[in-house]
Write a structure and sequence with these properties.
about 300 residues, alpha+beta, 8-stranded mixed beta sheet, 3-stranded antiparallel beta sheet, about 25% strand
């Protein structure tokens, strides 16, 4: 999963906790691209050769990821794998690739060439060298499955934290308080706190994985149109929604849209809300229908969407 996993329960039920972690492990084993063997890696190994049948859960997630990738001007791209491996941001050996290397891999990242067969539940990557990467969406999917499992076990209050994906079940004492990190600050540095009940809070930011070369920071949120990290005035986006899967998709979409277009798009979605942290120390709230935000750092100022 690439981050610490924390499960908070109101009863000392170690057996239930162990079952939750086994569930997370099972999904990670199927979805990871950081090990040689998984269902997703089976698809990647067969690129340009033949379709691969996958489980219903894996197929549904790939289909969801492709739909998000096909949105106009989407920064989400399930076929981004060749570029992720080229940059290696967050892994040993990260570097700024040569323009020729990026140009060579861009044709391998076209989401339209991820061919899905609903009847067979098979996935075919049309070109040799293509690789799908579900890292931008897998945590949200897994968090939702953990929530569903806990509800089936009769759990009414719990907090699931998969590192950047926080899913609050129930509302102890009225709400759960979830911190919004201050970009490039100490681990406990917060811009503010979001109070929510029965909601997902997902944050994606350029401070999470980055490296410095030639006096410039290069972060992990890549622009599928150029092959380079996206460059705009946003340092992080936090999405508040019912499902963590939506949070994963929309943090990437909204980061790519930018503040102005992102706010305009969110006016049409009552179920999705965003908190933007900008490079000029603004906290921009798309709305506060589903949460309450409290500013903790007075070097920032709060404003609303004006788009």
């Amino acid at each position: 999963m690439g981050s610490p996993i924390v499960l908070s329960l109101f009863t000392d039920d170690r057996d239930l906790a162990a079952r939750v972690f086994r569930l997370i492990q099972r999904y990670e084993d199927a979805l990871t691209v950081n090990r040689a063997v998984s269902q997703v890696m089976a698809v990647n190994h067969a690129a340009g050769l033949h379709p691969v049948k996958v489980s219903g859960a894996v197929y549904d997630l790939i289909r969801c990821a492709k739909a998000a990738s096909m949105v106009n001007d989407s920064a989400f791209n399930l076929a981004i794998g060749p570029l992720v491996k080229l940059w290696r941001i967050g892994f040993q050996g990260s570097r700024v690739p040569a323009r020729e290397e990026i140009a060579e891999r861009l044709p391998l990242t076209r989401p339209a060439e991820v061919i899905l067969n609903d009847h067979e539940r098979s996935v075919f990557l049309a070109r040799a060298g293509m690789e799908i990467d579900l890292g931008a969406i897998a945590k949200g999917y897994i968090a939702d499955r953990v929530r569903d499992f806990l509800r089936q076990q009769g759990v009414e209050q719990a907090l699931i934290n998969l590192g950047g994906n926080v899913l609050a079940l129930g509302s102890p004492q009225g709400a759960w308080s979830v911190g919004v990190k201050k970009p490039f600050a100490a681990a406990d540095g917060l811009v503010g706190v979001v109070d929510v009940a029965n909601k997902s809070v997902v944050t994606s930011g350029i401070y999470e994985r980055w490296f410095e070369q030639d006096g410039k920071r290069w972060h992990h949120i890549l622009d599928p149109r150029t092959g380079y990290p996206l460059d705009n005035d946003i340092e992080s986006v936090t999405i508040v929604s019912d499902d963590s899967l939506d949070g994963d998709v929309w943090t990437t979409l909204i980061y790519g849209f930018g503040v102005e277009k992102g706010c305009a798009v969110l006016r049409q979605r009552e179920d999705i809300e965003a908190i933007f942290i900008t490079k000029n120390r603004e906290v921009i709230l798309s709305s506060q229908r589903q949460f309450r935000f409290t500013l903790l750092d007075d070097s920032y100022r709060i404003s609303g969407c004006t788009a």
